[in-house]
Amino acid sequence: MRPSFFYGWVVVVVCVLATLSTGEVVWSFGVFFTSFEQQFDWSRQVVSSGYTLMIVGHSVSAIIAGRLADRGAARSALLGSALVGGTAIILSSQINDSLQFRLLFLCIGLGAGASHSIPNSVVQRWFAGRPHAGVALASVMAGIGIGALIFAPLFRYLISTIGWRTTLVFAGIAFFMMVGTAGVLRRPYANDLAPKSSGQHEMDTKTGQPKKARQMLLSAPFLTLLAVTFVAFLAFQVTLVHLVPYASDVGLSPGMAAAALGLFGGASVPGRFVAGVLAERIGWRKTLSVALGGAATAMLGLIFVSQDWMLFSAVLLLGVCHGMRAVAVFGLLGRFFGTVALGELIGFTIAMGQLMSAPGPYIVGYWYDLGNSYSLMFAVIAAALCFAALMVLRTSTNQMQREV
């Protein structure tokens, strides 16, 4: 008898539409960096502050959207995200001063958070206890890298032909269509139709019941993953914001710099699938440690860039490792804590990691304005990534008992 089609794969496709928008908005900010810098004669510190505020907004909305997803309101959250984020991106094409710039990018972040936390929690809920759950999660998260691979070079081309203001209008319309379509195609009450056997969950030893989200947030494994996410997001955000201007500083063309930024996102796509395959062989914990160590090597490599191939090599490694890290962290969350409050846990992890690392691009911009160099900051980030890799490896097997 032919097996019936599992609707969860339709959910995967719908979730990819949403994650594409994250690659469009967050990953492509660096492409607009020099346009803002040159148009308004702003320092890199000022331009970086817009990204920082966008991440703050993204963090807040990621938590709210995650809670809504846990309560079966993922569709409403995605539609609201499309309206708020798309409108803010379009309005940002009309900015004329730094206050408008900062406020609108804060609003962009508030509209974009749902497109990250909801897809990652929803797909794990649908595939809990089913085969190919890792492939499904990797596929959804690959949408982020695919979005960066598509939109970073596209926006660079559009900026050079029609200007950054018109490009932002196009970006806002694209965001609205992608996230809005994902919201419309989401089957109503899909959470109620998803498999109820959501796997094992960490239990409260006193009550014998699954732990509540608040208890999980204070557990040692979660705090370890949160610290790792902070360091990884710091490297990620600094690279997104400063890669293009850094490449220009070392004498590379703006086109090559934008292509490198797109490669950063594109390389994360195979990295996400590599994580899923590797985790089946060595476990999520070791996979995460490998990803962090590789990212540290790439950050050190950036310091010595002087030619196109050196930039692309470092960015390729960094992108692959970023993709591996992203899947490994969320895979560990789902494997260790189950899916009862997974949306909230993912939202909180994204939010706190982003909020704690949000000043990073601003601080790096400030340091650059003082010393006209990125080398020390890249070295510090590489050292932090190495420490995070060791911290993951030293986590006790009792704390990560689902890995053994």
Structure commentary:
By secondary structure, the protein is mostly helical. It has a single domain (9-186, 209-399), classed as Growth Hormone, Chain: A (Up-down Bundle). 80% of the residues lie in helices and 0% in strands. Helix 3 packs antiparallel against helix 15 (342-357) and helix 11 (220-249) runs antiparallel to helix 14. The longest helix has 30 residues, at 133-162.
- Helical stretch tally: 17
Low-confidence stretches: 188-210, 400-404
* Content of β-strand: under 5%
Biggest sheet descriptor: none
Strand and helix layout:
Elements: H1 8-25, H2 29-40, H3 44-70, H4 74-91, H5 98-112, H6 114-127, H7 133-162, H8 164-185, H9 190-193, H10 213-217, H11 220-249, H12 254-282, H13 284-303, H14 308-337, H15 342-357, H16 359-371, H17 375-394
Helix pairs in contact: 1-6, 1-7, 1-8, 2-3, 2-7, 2-11, 3-4, 3-5, 3-6, 3-15, 3-16, 4-5, 4-6, 4-8, 6-7, 6-15, 7-8, 7-12, 7-14, 11-12, 11-14, 11-15, 11-16, 11-17, 12-13, 12-14, 13-14, 13-17
